[in-house]
Amino acid sequence: MLKKQKILIALVFGVAAVGLIIAGPVGAKVEGDTIVFGSAVSFTGKYSTNGKHTKNGYDLAAKRINEMGGVKVGNKKYKIKIQYYDDESTPARAGQLAERLIKQDGIKFILGPYGSGPTKGMAPITEKHKIPMVEGNGASRSLFNKGYKYLFAVLSTSEKYLAESINLLAEQFKKAGRDPSSAKVAIAVENDPFSMDIRAGVLDDAKRWGMKVIIDDKLPKELTDMTATLTKVKALKPDLLVVSGHSKGAALAVRQTSQMKVDVPMLALTHCEAADVIGKFGGDANYTLCATQWAETMTYKDKWFGFAGDYAVTFKKAYGYMPPYQAAESTASVLVYVDAIERAGSFDTKKVRDALAATKLETFYGNIDFDDTGKNIAKPMVLRQIQKGKLVPVAPSKFAGGQVIFPKPKWATR
Amino acid sequence: MQGFQILFAAPIFSVQLLIDGILIGAIFALAAYGMALVWGVMKIINFAQGEFVILGGFIAFAFINTGIHPFLGVPLAAVSLYIIGWFLYRLVIVRIVEKDLFISILATFGISIFMQQIMNQIFGADVQTAESGMGTWFLFNNNVTVLQIKVVSFVIALVIGACLALFMKKARLGQAIRATAQNARAARILGIDTDKVYSTTFALNAAICGATGALVLMIWVIQPFMGLAYTIRSFMIVIVAGIGNVAGVIVAGLGLGAVENFAGFILGTEFQAAFVFSLLVVILVWRNFLLKLKRSYLE
Amino acid sequence: MNNTGRKFVLYGSILVISLAAPWMLPAYQTQLAFLWMMVLFALTWDLVGGQMGYTSFGNIVFFGVGMYVTAVIQRNLHFDIEEYVHVAGAVDMLTPGQYLAGLFLGLGASTIASVIVAAILGACILAMGMRGQYFGICTLGLGVAAGELASGWEYIGAGSGMVTPVFPDGLGERGVFFYYIFFLLAGILFLTLRWLYSGRFGLAIKAIRDDEDKAEAMGIHTTRYKIIAWCICAFFLSLAGGAAGHLIGFIDPTEVAFAGATFGVWMILMAILGGKGTLWGPVIGAVIFHFTQELFWTYLFGWQRVALGGLIIAVVVFFPQGIMGWLRDRWPERFGYWVEESSGSDPFGDAKP
Asked: Strands A382-387 and A288-292: what pairing?
């Protein structure tokens, strides 16, 4: 080979090296008097809507904490800042970004991504490098059986999401004098990790009550139409239809059940708020059950934001819309971190990790208490029903204020 | 095979599936008309077809938000997309016409990524929809529901198909398009402005997609990253119909919609997409096999 | 220094830098590992697409097959399958010995599986004579269909995907381990291709690209060469897939394994960028593409996909001959093909090393 070719090849590798150096560290764990948190969030791709909510949640927390003086470690007060990357809604990217944040940017405290998939991509890496990750949007139970010591989740895990609806159904059956095990359940979930976990939770609970699952559809990821599933629902007449397909699934479920006049005594969805079904479909959305990690009507409170309702007002003022639970749990993650760092009194990751594990904190989002695996066991999922255009908590019946309307009135009478 | 049992026990649901499938297929056929044209005339596979559809939906949504009636969104989206398509042609497409086909796939794929992000930035990543205000027909004792808006779209698909066919046959420009499709060089020699033909074809494609998007907005929902489904289906329809065969598109579209719906019902929704694409592969292999018997091949 | 001497220096320096890279740049180990994977992607695509002229959009099938086969073997060997699926992941850590055994056994099995798949697909598609645009479309359909089928198959995790075992302690850094694996794979691939291209095989596939019917008429068994080329492609891609699955840690059927919209397209783009149909072209293209992507990510936050789309358009529309192609046009005496008249040894001695 000739000289010019050799020079060219060397040049290419040289450019590469220069590129690497330029693309070097963008931040370190503590710059001066600012603590830098790192996060990989979905700005693009299918989770981008919720990625936005997550980022807004994190940002609002940072703003509030800085407004209130910052984080106290030793004698000094530190401001906080968050470094973001786009994980494009894919686990592979999220994993790579975790490496980048830890190794290149020197980040010592990681805030979780949106979605179980990306969280699953990041967790092994943060665990390997012993960097704590506090997340509020990765609910898959498979994150918590690997013995991770550095992963903490403030939210209720995924299998709890709609399992409450099974219990509610059983309760209503008993009230009406019918045997709960005679109930028929239909499941339609998107074929992705999160929704499949929800399905697993529903299946487990249905098995406990002895109910039959008569429809078990896995909707394609590029879903545009649910009519085939709804046709089955019309044919087989289940007592409960559970749908989980992120915002798209929720919107389609409400829209198409009303268009096709599908009568199901109970319809339970995830992501109603994120899809804004009340705003978009008005009266058609009534009587739908919505699973939520948090509601602004709950009476939890904390020193940063006050009551849940106060948080909602603050959020709305800052961003122009009511916070969905994805934003609230993101904010809570930051609060938990700050609380732990203050208790640890240091930036040493092991000490912070131990402080996190010992957390017993009430936040506007709910109570936080982590078990050995990093799950938050102090906060139950809430089911709300849309009644007259408003979300009313109806389950768990013990703590909820409202009464569920069951069965859903038939379309013909509405 | 739960689906099978249901259909066996209550055949009325086959009617629902069939009607739904055909109506869904009509929408996909709408998206496919332009694809057939562009592929036949310019030898370009437009991988951004779905993004044109979604963009049309968003533009209609933007107009509807200013208060106009949702139905006006259809022509408005069509016109807007015609202009956008024309600009896109001038900027990018003009350089890849008559080049290697896979160059066109890659270039339009690049355009699709580009458009997805632009839509994401401008319109936000939220799912959007619009109310057409139309109702539903209930047949066979409420067992079969037919959305009126879907039927309207079906009619629009037929009308546009007929108009296109007529246009290609009778209008000067239509004939010029056909001539260019047959042999671009000969057309040029005979005095046809092939550049105008290309730009018109591409812009027309965009316009039809725009109209489709406005309809999709009223029937289902749109979101910046939902375009791929439309791209792939229109692609498949064109292959089944035969490139450049506009009349075949509507038939293939309806057929594909129905087949896909039944497959999803019977095989299980998780295999619906797998079935569709496997079908594509099988059709191509089969077509090729038939040609091989004549010592020819698909190229 | 004569030609051979120069070659030696070039290869030697690349070898030394590459071997030392993970230690010189410890923060970028995983990214460097992916760099070699990209090189492998570009080279394998170029074999079938650039050298042979059969632009395939579905090579990702082999990557995904490799990934899943390795992961399944790893899982079945060490864990109770039902528990694994129910709990969606391993509960216990593997010992280094178990991990390596599963990994290498899995890699071996994936090569067999993917070559079989390539042979079957080749028999249905290539042997039947499908070419050009239809070949591209057919392979595109295959790529998507494979991803969707994997999404529906419970045994391999369906839509939830599969989690590969956590990298055990005692094998060093995960990034370094996989860096060397990918480097080794890419290196072996490169040397294999170099040997193939300089011999009869290279001539045959180039002849197929130039004019298949004439090649057939001249007595070249085009079908055989086509299928063999595709099988070689499948072999290496499956190895890359198996390793990648373990590096990424989480296998999603359509986003990671059969990632047509990302890896599948990048394969083609990198080869074109560097110059398809050349030996070094795909390598150069892969390096530049990978680093450009990283730069976009860091500095064009939120807009990086727009930039990526723009890059794809720019390369494909304005620069389809790629870097090597451009170099050849500019300095034909330096980079072009040499046709020397000499007695005996092969008459088409390339200027490439």
From this structure: antiparallel
